[in-house]
């Protein structure tokens, strides 16, 4: 919880103020979850501060909300291309991605439970950037990162708005596929990889996950003889849930 508040304040997401007369305030709450790795083991525990976006009204508190995400077919095509070319696929994760989205609307939220400012308990926070739970938060984040890619010289695929491509002299190319706050990228030039990661980490708070191993529930094994994908963890969960985990295995030919 402390790290979440620190991330919000470090990102200059809000400012404490009096609630203007006639303005609406939206509540906030804490949400807790476990993040698992490709083996189904606990990777980390996460506390997220979210707004009670269900209280927002369309046309009053927000307007546009749609945001594209990469289709599974697109992800498979990029993986297949990397396998054919012998390219390595890497992965990045944007920490608290929605906190980077800039708001066009005026939004006020209550102070987080357990983190009220002593002597200023009656005040509220005016949001400069989005918080999780806001109806417009995904849209604000996508607009933010889309602008970043455009400024960095990437071209957006006209048929897949979460696939960004950058080219350079000598046939160098970099593909980036975006699914909300998860990014996979591949290409044929290590210098472009390093420049891209360095630029992203300057612009956003990132986690470098190295070679892609687990993406959107898909396990990825990269070897010299190809790239192999599967869902062993999901299969084990299905077997465990149906109490078939200990049955005798039978190979079907």
TrEMBL record:
InterPro entries: DNA/RNA_pol_sf, RVT_2. Pfam families: RVT_2. Residues 11-242 form the Reverse transcriptase Ty1/copia-type domain. This is ADP glucose pyrophosphorylase large subunit 1. It comes from Prunus dulcis. The lineage of its organism: Eukaryota, Viridiplantae, Streptophyta, Embryophyta, Tracheophyta.
